[in-house]
Amino acid sequence: MTKQLSTDRLIIRRFSPADLDDFCAYQADPRVRKHLPGEPMDVGQVAQYLAAQAVLDEGQLEAWHGYAVELVETGTVIGDVGVYRVSAAEGDVGFQFHPGFHHQGYGREATTAFLAYLFEDLGLERVTAGCDQANEASRTLLVSLGLRPQSPSADGSCHFELSRDEWLGQR
After folding, report:
1. CA–CA dist 49, 55 (Å, integer)
2. What's the pLDDT tens digit per position in 37-84?
3. In whole angstroms, how large is the CA radius of gyration of the chain?
């Protein structure tokens, strides 16, 4: 992300190595991990991930681009949003937030700003997203942002998509 995104309550920016403690505070939490595949990263893996994300070329395809979501009021990183750049025109988005900040609208606020960035600044034509069928909060958020549900997968995951034209049409 070449620029920092801002909302009234949040800053969305590249990760930095200084985000280690905040990132560790939520990414390994069982409530966050409940609907995510794989195991949480250990401290060494988190340090490597944050350092790599801090310098990742924004245009790199077939890579995950994760961004810190920082609370303006305190400077605390409370979650992250990101996109896997499938191609120059398409990406798969995701998010995770510290459970202490759930149900306060931060996910919607951050993801709205991030989608605007992807469609309006990066020029993506289509985004997709997925989540576990049992993750009602994520499914509800994705639908509220205008992403259209697709047929559920046999593995119990839900898939969504949104085109640039659909995004611009709802603005």
Report:
1. 10
2. 888 899 999 999 999 999 999 889 999 999 999 999 999 999 999 999
3. 15
